[in-house]
Amino acid sequence: MSNPRARPCAEETILAVHPARNCSTSAKPWVLLTTILASSIAYVDESVVNIALPAIESDLGASATIIQWLVNAYTLCLSALLLAGGAAGDHFGRRRLFLIGIGVFAVASLWCGLSQTVLQLISARALQGVGAALLIPTSLAIIGATFEERERGKAIGT
Length: 158
Hints:
Blueprint: H1 11-14, H2 19-22, H3 28-60, H4 64-92, H5 94-114, H6 118-146, H7 149-157
Helix pairs in contact: 3-4, 3-6, 4-5, 4-6, 5-6, 6-7
């Protein structure tokens, strides 16, 4: 866990986990793969609902206004909570918030699939946005803390 009194952009906060001591060279590709996959599901989910909109509209009888809320609920929660998710990761631990974000996102995705009404689906999409707001910034912070300065740019670019 990081120092809760440290400034968010302080060097000691960014490098709270020293790469050389806590992550072996053989584990670094796995850390990178895990963080890339987690971020990817969050980014893909932002646009994947557009493919299902005609089926959602006909199956759940959703109007155009409801469809807009369905699309925007995820983006609204993600963008509103993105900075808070990063700060929470610095305060409570990046790995912990990363795993919580994945869990929230997974539960919300299951809820989306099981939704029987439009209101349930919109609520589940909003919860997905909350999960994404936790996992996206912490995945980048984990990469920053795992890779040494000379490797960091390549890892983030990947």
